[in-house]
Amino acid sequence: MAKPATPNLLQGTLDLLILHALQRGEMHGYAVAQAIHLSSGEVLKVEEGSLYPALYRLELDGAIKSRWGVSDNNRRARYYALTRRGRKLAGEQHETWDRLSAAVHRALAH
User: What is the pLDDT averaged over residues 16-29?
Assistant: First the structure.
């Protein structure tokens, strides 16, 4: 049986997912993508072409900070962590998402 297609993410949803993943602690980009994939029940897959521009945008916005380090497989990697602003933004975006998803659910129920 064919596996269902991976749904496209709404604008801004990727930022929320990244901020949520980083609430668990500092991680490199690949680990962020894996955290999103695994926490979604392996439904959502974040491609590099979407992930790294989003990380860059969040860093420019002051929501996350980064540093260079060495990964578990001994490779140079950029590690990302939430800032105070990022923690606040994650909470705000989560509340917005809850309202939006409830509204969509109500609309689809009628």
Answer: 97
The confidence score (pLDDT) of residue 12 equals: 80
The reported pTM is 0.87
Percent of the chain with pLDDT over 90: 85
- CA distances to 87, 93, 99, 110 from 20, rounded to whole Å, are 9, 10, 17, 31
Angle at alpha carbon of residue 22, lines to 20 and 28, rounded to 5°: 135
- Long-range (24+ apart) CB contacts under 8 A made by 60-69 are 61/85, 61/89, 62/86, 63/15, 63/19, 63/89, 64/18, 64/19, 64/22, 69/28
Q: Residue 67: exposed, middle, or buried by beta-carbon count in 10 A (0-12, 13-18, 19+)?
A: exposed
Residue 6: pLDDT over 70: no
Domains parsed from the chain with CATH numbers: 13-109 (1.10.10.10)
